[in-house]
């Protein structure tokens, strides 16, 4: 199982590389990685397991964050209706997105960043993502609100982008016109 000691932090080169596509159909090893990423997120959200293994709670994790530069991510977060959105995704790709932007009022955090970086990260309010799931099947997800933000944060990791790259250092709390605030 993945624990905090497996998660690389800022300064590790894997966080700044462009991750490579997973060969399809995914190998057992790649599927195992996807499963382990999702398991970390699930374990971290279970208070007892998180406490027992010292896991920092997270809503998403990407393979580069365990030093593996492959295009695999996991997300687990509730949507606005309280529905649990929980997926391990191989080769996730944003195939379309809204013009409208959205941002988390609380800002973003990252399991690879051991400090608070204040500021708003403006992302697409809605995204459609195509990916390969744990069974090797193509799936299409339409996400909005918090799940859309989390998915974009994780896909950024596959492109060597950190959330704070999106924050304007001179004006960290500037709001893009028409961008919708999201509370979580
Ligand atoms: Zn992150």
Automatic annotation (TrEMBL):
GO function term, MF aspect, one: peptide deformylase activity
The protein's Enzyme Commission number: 3.5.1.88
SUPFAM superfamilies given in the database record: Peptide deformylase
Cofactor, how bound (note): Binds 1 Fe(2+) ion.
Known catalytic reactions: N-terminal N-formyl-L-methionyl-[peptide] + H2O = N-terminal L-methionyl-[peptide] + formate
GO biological process: translation
Binding site for Fe cation: 110, 153, 157
Signal peptide: none
Alphabetical keyword list: Hydrolase, Iron, Metal-binding, Protein biosynthesis
Class of this enzyme: hydrolase
Cofactor section: Fe(2+)
InterPro entries, alphabetized: Peptide_deformylase, Peptide_deformylase_sf
Annotated catalytic residues: 154
Family: Belongs to the polypeptide deformylase family.
Annotated function: Removes the formyl group from the N-terminal Met of newly synthesized proteins. Requires at least a dipeptide for an efficient rate of reaction. N-terminal L-methionine is a prerequisite for activity but the enzyme has broad specificity at other positions.
PANTHER family according to UniProt: PEPTIDE DEFORMYLASE, PEPTIDE DEFORMYLASE 2
Name of this protein: Peptide deformylase
